[in-house]
Q: What sequence folds into this?
């Protein structure tokens, strides 16, 4: 495990715990020598995460579509900034660069990106670990929905169990690093 892709909000959200978690994750990833791959923005939780990793001596690669970079949302102080032509290219590049995936609080884009990599895992496109940092129980209702989807027969129990969920940064990173999955 050398790199993690993190999906999270381009806003700060309504609770300070969200920002604190982004800061803690960036710092801990740098401390562990994990390369951060994320959406490339300099705003909200995304900017907090990237700055925390950089300030702690970490390596950070941002992947951002040109239409967002052109709006001056791109973080210009990263180890590497990749500007791509579309959201589809962004997701493909982030998935290729990452050995695993983590989701922090965020909105529709965060959900869409994370569910795509979960689906790819279900379909066998990759065998990379996926984890949820359930900050201040932000994702609890979503996790209950996934449990309901298992009960209803639309999500396999093994797929649901494979999704790692923790409320503390160190515990989630420990589990992800211990799983030893690699892409096929």
A:
């Amino acid at each position: 495990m050398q790199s993690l892709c993190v999906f999270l909000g381009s806003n700060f959200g309504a609770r300070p715990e969200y920002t604190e978690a982004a800061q803690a994750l960036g710092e801990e990833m740098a401390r562990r020598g994990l390369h951060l791959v994320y959406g490339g923005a300099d705003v909200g939780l995304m900017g907090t995460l990237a700055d925390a990793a950089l300030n702690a001596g970490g390596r950070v690669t941002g992947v951002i579509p040109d239409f967002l970079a052109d709006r001056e949302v791109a973080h210009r102080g990263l180890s590497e900034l990749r500007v791509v032509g579309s959201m589809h290219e962004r997701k493909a590049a982030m998935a290729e660069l990452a050995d695993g995936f983590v989701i922090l609080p965020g909105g529709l884009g965060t959900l869409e990106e994370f569910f795509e990599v979960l689906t790819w895992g279900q379909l066998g496109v990759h065998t990379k670990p996926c984890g949820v940092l359930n900050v201040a129980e932000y994702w609890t209702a979503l996790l209950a929905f996934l449990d309901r989807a298992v009960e209803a027969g639309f999500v396999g129990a093994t797929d649901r169990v494979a999704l790692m969920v923790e409320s503390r940064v160190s515990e989630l990173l420990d589990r992800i690093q211990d799983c030893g999955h690699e892409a096929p």
About this structure: Strands lie at 3-7, 35-38, 60-65, 80-84, 101-103, 130-133, 164-166. Residues 16-31 form the longest helix (16 residues).
